[in-house]
Amino acid sequence: MSFTSHDNANDISIFNAESMLPKRINDPIHGLMEFDDWMFGIIDTPHFQRLRNIKQLGTTYYVFPGACHNRFEHCLGTAYLANSLVKRIQDTQPNYKVEKDLECVTVAALCHDLGHGPFSHTFDNTFIPQTRPDIKWRHEDASLMMFDHLWENHHDTIDFSTDDVKFIKSLITGDICSGRSRYLFDIVANKTNSIDVDKFDYLNRDCYYLGMKSVFDFSRLMRYSRVIDNQITYYFKESYSIYELFHTRYSLYKKVYYHRVGKAIEYMLCDAMAEADPILGISKAIDDPEKYLQLNDTILNEIEFSKDPMLKKSRDLIKRIRTRDLYKFVDEFIIPLELKDHLTEKKINSREIIAHQSDNDRLGEDDVIVNRIKLSYAKKNENPVDYVKFYNQYDIDKAFNLEKSQVSYLIPEQYEETIIRIFTRDCSKMKPVQDCFRKLLKTFTTEPDDPNSSGSVGYTLPEEYISPPKKRQKHRASRR
């Protein structure tokens, strides 16, 4: 038996045994993952290999150095889980056994993130809205574009019909189409209750590389899943595990994905790319798959090492990131429910904030960045478990819903929160920006002592606050 190896990221090794055997990929999360040989007709394309150079957690890597994993291995893991789940369902419920369904779902999982741009969600959530505010664009749109381009250029090595390709694209977006088993749309991008193998992989993979422990066990959910009424259901004793899934997701967004320093670096990175956009045409690449194929995290190096004088502002911003001279987080305000519909973007923005400055503050709109984020259990202000079906051991073909009171009385009553975060591009202006923001907040309440009328006590700057650069200058001066 002979073995050949592929060069994969993060010491992922591939062993190619005799042609009758599948190839195996050694993954730190799932162990040995088996893939049929035909799948490498997709994996070994420039479209998929591009994902090696796109950080899974974007600028979070600059805060958590262990988070060095890429979209490449996440997509492999998601494809492995999708394949395993459908195989299990087809083996335990043979009436759902359709070989082409298994292949299509596996491909959809493999290709669901083909459309991510540089630094993952930094690109579609911040950079594109900043540079092309006239369009609504998501990375899923680019995933469809890149999958079409992959198919056009490699269809001779990939055995799928035009209908199969249409089905795969529907699985990627989660938009249910007729003619295929309904339960298959619950696997890759589940729009019904948001339980899918994409989350199974990234929650566990991200925790692993972040150095955090995850209490959520996706393997139990997969083991106790069953198709009833053409929908994936779960054994009712796993109901609390599902709440743990959504709470784990919420916690990662709260503590990691929206980390204040990571977000500050994200704004710096987007400002650097926006400055370079007229010269390099970065934002226009989303309209051209050939150009998008060349776009990944290395755009940072392209700007950084360019000698073009027109890229100086971009290079200076990247240098600030390298030397940790960062934009600064200033304040945070969690909007109470009674003010949720009132404190809109028209009421709280950089212009309204600097309108409350004192004569000597000298603040401009560009000094202030307003970051409005929404955290939820994945279904906005709804409980996603209300959309999950369960079964019990006495009638495994009958599905039912569970009230949260039948699971625990400690489950949340509210499932979404909106947070306003304030950043400044000039760290010497942190104190006046914070004062202005808090003055603005007080205009929305008639109770001066109301804790909901100001930012977080934990972030209150002292009256004689000295910015870190000034502290360093003062320290250097004292040593002379």
Automatic annotation (TrEMBL):
GO BP of this protein: dGTP catabolic process
Name of this protein: 19304_t:CDS:1
The organism of origin for this protein: Funneliformis geosporum
Bias-annotated ranges (Polar residues): 447-457
SMART domains: HDc
Any one GO molecular-function label of the UniProt entry: dGTPase activity
Domain HD: residue ranges: 71-203
Pfam family, one: HD_assoc_2
InterPro entries registered for this protein in UniProt: dGTPase-like (IPR050135), HD/PDEase_dom (IPR003607), HD_assoc_2 (IPR045509), HD_domain (IPR006674)
Biased composition (Basic residues): 469-480
Residue numbers spanned by region Disordered: 447-480
Alphabetical list of PROSITE patterns matching this protein: HD
